[in-house]
Structure formats: structure tokens, C-alpha cells
Specification:
Strand order of the largest sheet: 15-12-14-13-17-18-16-19
Largest sheet: 8 strands, antiparallel
Distance between the termini: 30 Å
CATH superfamily of the largest domain: FAD-linked oxidases, C-terminal domain
Oligomer: single chain
Helix content: 25-40%
Shape: globular
Number of helices: 13
Number of domains: 2
CATH class of the largest domain: Alpha Beta
CATH architecture of the largest domain: 3-Layer(aba) Sandwich
Length: about 425
């Protein structure tokens, strides 16, 4: 028997059996032995969505490229492949993901199953890039699904929460490798909010970070360029200074100091906001999209209608300042296009995302509860892999196709082979 914990250390399990399948046939054999089975990926979810109760599938034995079609851009990859590995394998083939989040330690199956997304008004979450899936169902059957084969399963399983089956391979629609020109720098909060729609519309990929207890934000404006136009990379020393030393080492010191002496948090945030100065560079897309994250944290992220972002941010920032809380992590603001996936946080609506963080060992309940209550008027949808307190009754009204998903789950897995306590709460269980 073995134990498991997630990256943040806030979810754990003991007395479980860990299996490391090397093929889809291995996964099928494990599932048909009986018991509750979960595939936890790299454990980068903060919620208990991947918490195993009996059997944990370590998917690291299912990595790497299976098929590459450069003409169509269709690439099939093992479900246990991390985004970090995938990005490099695709680049070797002259291909790239269309959009990414800022962390690349997740497995591709975990990232799509929880609704991971990047930013950009015209770009959907990672699941919108999924052309097909290979899955093992609760009875051990191996199936392929796509828009032309078992389309109902494909539609739902792109953001399947691990509730419909074990994803063993993912086929992605990729595109020719491209560059991003990055412009990063500080912007006063009031100017950000006055210009928010302009900044979103004027950049392919826009995001901002507000530092609580200050009136400053850090903005990131990434715009797509053909590789043929050339790269202007950061010098190695500058990349290390900004992304490793300042954004991780020094930020870690500031966070640790704020935990011990909360009164120092506003000063630390002012220092952090000014230390991360202006920079401009061009590099291959995945190197701009993603950043190293060494300081461990807990996170809640809520999706609201994109058109409501400015009003919502004004309310949230005011509430945090009134609360007396000392918040040492920035609040992240992003946008994404609507999609047609039943349990995607962007299902049927262009979405704005507000992400809230605290150090991994700090009790998050008061802070996350405060901002959740402020945003409740905007019918927020929580990121499935991040912390929230909503149950099936509350979530049903936020997703027009919620019952469609649950009915499919009940048909495919009536005995709850792939369920756990968390999924029973957020999806319901008869």
C-alpha cells in the first residue's frame, strides 16, 4: 500500500494501490479488476478532483508521441505526457499548441480534463484543441471518440473531470511552430481598468496581475509572429534574473516574510510590483506562454462573463482592501473565447478569469470565501482543478448542459468506478 499527495500538499491519500500501466491494454486490465480507479496525472490540481480512494494510475508510462501528421497538424500523444515534454516534442516536429496556460508541469490529459486554459479573446481552452481521444470505460472497453465517432462522448470528455473514463491518448490539432513577441511591464490599476477592453482587443494574448494593497499591476501582452521574422530572445542572464531569481527566489522570500510578519505584506507587494520591470522579447511560443513556478500555493479561479470583468475587478479589489486581509500573492486576470464543451468554464460564453492565490500552507478559507461572495452576482464557474465549495445543486444552474453530462456519466459509469468523494459532491450521485 502507498500514499499520494498533490503538488500543493493540500490533498493526500494513504493506503492506496499504485499501478503504472504501459499500454491501454494495461489500463483496461486494471480497471476490470474492480475497485475505484483514478488517474491523477502530475497532481497539479488543488481540488480533490484526482484524489484516489483505492487505486491510483501513475500515467507516466504512457508518454510521448504516437503519430504526427505535419500536413494536417494532427498529433496523437500518450495521456501521461507532460506539457513540458509535449511542447519540446512538438517543436522538434515544427509544430506547436495554439494556446497554453502559464504552467507546463501538468499532463496533457489532466490539463484538458480539468478545463485548463490560457488567455486571449479569440482562443479557447486547451480542450478546444482536442480532435480525438482514446479512452478506457468502466467495463474495461477501449474506445476512440471524435466529432465523427462517438461524438457525444468526445464532446463531453474533452473536459471530462476524470468521470467518464480513463483517457489514454489525446489527438491534438496543432499548428506550425510560431513565435510570440512579449511586452511586459507595470501599469497603474486604474489605467488597466479604464483600458481593459482596449488591451484585450489589441493583443492576441493579454493578461494582468494586480498586487493587493497597491495600485499597480503587471501586464503581459503577447502577439503572434511567424518564425521567419526571427527571434529576439532575452539574454540568459536576464532570463535567469527575472524568471528564476526575482519571480521565484526573491518572491519566495517575500512570501515567507509575509507569512511570519503579515504587516510586511503591503510593503512586499510594492517591492514585487516594482521589481518586475519592463521587458520586451521574442521567442518560440511555448517559452513565452509558460513560466517556472517554484513557490507553492493554493489557488481558486472563477470564470465570469468577459463583459463583466471591469466591474467585477473593481468590486473585488475594493472588497480585499476593506477586509483587513493581508494578501501576498497577485490576483491574475485573463480572458478566453466561448466554446461548445458541456463542462468547460467557457461553455457558451466568452469568459473572464480571476485567479486568487495564497501560500500553500496558509488557510485560504476567509480570503477565497470573501472573493467568492463578491463574485456570486456574476454566476461564476470555478475551475475544476482549483479550490471551491460548490456542489452539484449550485453548479447545475451555472452550466446549461450540466444534466446532459451527468446523464452520460451515469450511463457509462453507473457504479462509480471513476468517482471519488469530490466528484460525487460536484456532479451528484444517485
Amino acid at each position: 500500500m502507498a500514499g499520494w499527495s498533490n503538488w500543493a500538499g493540500n490533498q493526500s491519500a494513504s493506503g492506496i494501490t499504485v499501478e503504472t500501466p504501459r499500454s491501454v491494454q494495461d489500463v483496461s486490465a486494471i480497471v476490470t479488476r474492480g475497485g475505484k480507479v483514478k488517474a491523477a496525472g502530475s497532481g497539479h490540481s488543488f481540488s480533490a478532483i484526482g484524489r484516489p480512494e483505492q487505486v491510483l494510475l501513475d500515467m507516466s508510462g504512457l508518454q510521448g508521441l504516437r503519430r504526427v501528421d505535419r500536413d494536417s497538424g494532427l498529433v496523437t500523444v500518450g495521456a501521461g505526457t507532460t506539457l513540458a515534454l509535449l511542447n519540446r516534442l512538438l517543436a522538434d516536429e515544427g509544430l506547436a499548441m495554439t494556446n497554453l496556460g502559464d504552467i507546463e508541469s501538468q499532463t496533457i490529459s489532466g490539463a484538458i480534463s480539468t478545463g485548463t486554459h490560457g488567455t486571449g479573446r479569440a482562443f479557447g481552452g486547451l480542450a478546444t484543441q482536442v480532435a480525438a481521444l482514446e479512452m478506457v470505460l468502466a467495463d474495461g472497453t477501449v474506445v476512440d471518440c471524435s466529432a465523427g465517432e462517438r461524438p457525444e462522448l468526445w464532446s463531453a470528455a474533452r473536459v471530462g473531470l476524470g468521470a467518464l473514463g480513463i483517457v489514454t491518448a489525446v489527438t491534438l490539432r496543432c499548428e506550425p511552430l510560431f513565435a510570440l513577441h512579449a511586452e511586459e511591464g507595470p501599469l497603474p490599476l486604474d489605467e488597466l481598468l479604464d483600458r481593459f477592453d482596449e488591451l484585450v482587443a489589441g493583443n492576441d494574448h493579454f493578461e494582468a496581475y494586480w498586487f493587493p494593497h497597491t495600485r499597480w499591476t503587471l501586464t503581459k501582452r503577447n502577439n503572434r509572429l511567424p518564425l521567419a521574422e526571427g527571434l529576439e530572445k532575452l539574454p540568459a542572464w536576464k532570463e535567469w534574473l527575472d524568471d528564476e531569481f526575482l519571480s521565484n527566489t526573491v518572491f519566495g522570500w517575500v512570501v515567507a516574510a509575509g507569512k511570519r510578519w503579515p504587516g510586511l505584506v503591503p510593503l512586499g507587494n510594492r517591492v514585487a510590483a516594482k521589481a518586475l520591470g519592463t521587458r520586451s522579447f521574442t521567442d518560440v511560443s511555448y517559452k513565452v506562454f509558460t513560466s517556472p513556478r517554484r513557490v507553492r500555493f493554493r489557488e481558486m479561479e472563477l470564470a465570469i462573463p468577459a463583459a463583466a470583468m471591469v466591474d467585477a475587478v473593481r468590486e473585488v479589489t475594493a472588497a480585499i482592501e476593506r477586509s483587513g486581509l493581508r494578501v501576498g500573492f497577485p490576483v491574475e486576470l485573463r480572458v478566453a473565447a466561448a466554446d461548445d464543451i458541456p463542462l468547460s468554464t467557457a461553455s457558451g460564453r466568452d469568459s473572464g478569469y480571476l485567479a486568487f492565490h495564497l501560500p500553500a500552507t496558509v488557510d485560504h478559507r476567509r480570503y477565497f470565501g470573501l472573493v467568492s461572495s463578491v463574485l456570486e452576482a456574476y454566476t461564476p464557474r470555478p475551475h475544476w482543478g482549483k479550490l471551491h465549495d460548490l456542489d452539484a445543486d449550485a453548479l447545475r444552474g451555472r452550466y446549461p448542459r450540466f444534466d446532459e453530462f451527468v446523464a452520460l456519466r451515469d450511463r457509462l459509469d453507473p457504479e462509480g468506478v471513476f468517482s471519488n468523494e469530490h466528484l460525487d459532491r460536484v456532479l451528484g450521485r444517485k
